[in-house]
Amino acid sequence: MAASESEPYLVLSHTCGAPGEPLSVEGFNLRPNTRGTVRWIPPEGTTRSLAHFDSDGEGHFVEGISIPSVVESEELHQIQTELRWEVGLPYPSETARVVFDKMLETIMLALMATTLGVFVAVPLSFLAARNLMSVSRGTMVIYFVIRGIFNIVRSIEPLIWAVVFAVWVGIGPFAGVLALGMHSIAALGKLYSEQVESIDTGPIEAVTATGANVLQTIIYAVVPQIVPPYLAFTIYRWDINVRMSTIIGMVGGGGVGFLLIQWVNLLRYKQAGVAVWAITVVVWVMDFVSGVVREKIV
Questions:
Q1: How far is CA 150 from the centre of its chain?
Q2: Where do the structural domains in the chain lie, given as residue ranges?
Q3: Bridge-partner residues for 40, per DSSP?
């Protein structure tokens, strides 16, 4: 390479040689006092790191290497130097920022689905509790219908619901919210109703003896007993939905899962690895936090 007064360049002791033959690499006009690497770049195959060096105060270095064993080719091989130095405080890459945004979207997606599930499952759970609905034949019919709906909806995986809603409303977070919300309604409805069935009957008998109707009995005798376990089940379901939202995102449900499957399909495995690590950390933190909160509530 021709010498230059300002631009960095390399000078080789010779430009032809056999594998294993020593070769001297001399660099000029590099960044002073900087750590660098000498790399061998073949026309085909993997780039190899051959040596490390430190440039002096004038940006000069001399390093001896051996010509590596490579596949013979009529095309020229290249030698390249790479220098690295700190330029300031660490900052997130573009990939990290995108993953962070999508991870927040995933958490909010799970929160909205859980909220939807709670609002629908709470009133239905009283209709699916045998001890409250066994007062007449008509109420028992309602009980069996609600329980049957819960069982049918729960038997369909959220992944299938995500495909259905992605076709219906389009690919994106809204489809994910509907898919997780549908499954959350059935799952929470079953858990809530079973909790209602396991409450102490003493307060119910005491309130009923005062002449209270069904609604008053539920408000004053049932609700105070079920609030703590209801909160625990809700937090646990949010934890489940965060984990599930990463999966349904792969079929068009939005969030970080949708981003992950795109990167995998494009063979961008480094970016996909960042997304996998983010999912792992968030799921671990959510599981730990929900466990602590549920332990304090119950």
A1: 28
A2: 9-84, 94-297
A3: 48, 79
